[in-house]
Amino acid sequence: MQKLYETSATAVGGRNGSVKSSDGVLELDVRLPKVFGGQGGSYTNPEQLFAAGYAACFDNALNYIAKAQRLAISSKVTAHVALIQGTPTAWDLAVTLDVEINGLEDSEAQKLLEQAHESCPYSRAIKGNVEVIINLK
């Protein structure tokens, strides 16, 4: 396998700190959500960052496969990421992807969803470890 791209980000202060990418393009303060006793406000958190990355990656996989099959589509992916407490000291994630695909019949769109899920690096990385539900909207 050939590495095509690599990046890095550094976190300081955990969920009440900051994150910064190695190139400085991404530089954000992160805070605990209010539900966990955080202050709220205009801050992001790791689950939002994961949801944004997964949504973009999955949408790209859809469009990449559609283009390879010469299918004209437009699509929109919303990733819902839940943090679930498994035990008092262990946490899990659950993901729901709500996907809109215009330009295909539902049966064709469903097939494309399945192919994208097999292709998307995020889907592949969490396969067998995180429950992922995909809804065709």
TrEMBL record:
What Gene3D superfamilies does the database record attribute to this sequence?
Answer: 2.20.25.10, 3.30.300.20
Q: Which domain of life is it from?
A: Bacteria
Which Pfam family, an example, fits this chain? OsmC
Cite a single GO BP annotation: response to oxidative stress
InterPro entries membership? KH_dom-like_a/b, OHR, OsmC/Ohr_fam, OsmC/Ohrsf
The family classification in the record reads: Belongs to the OsmC/Ohr family.
User: Which PANTHER family does the UniProt record give?
Assistant: ORGANIC HYDROPEROXIDE RESISTANCE PROTEIN-LIKE
* Protein name, as recorded: Organic hydroperoxide resistance protein
UniProt source species? Mongoliitalea lutea
Source lineage? Bacteria, Pseudomonadati, Bacteroidota, Cytophagia, Cytophagales
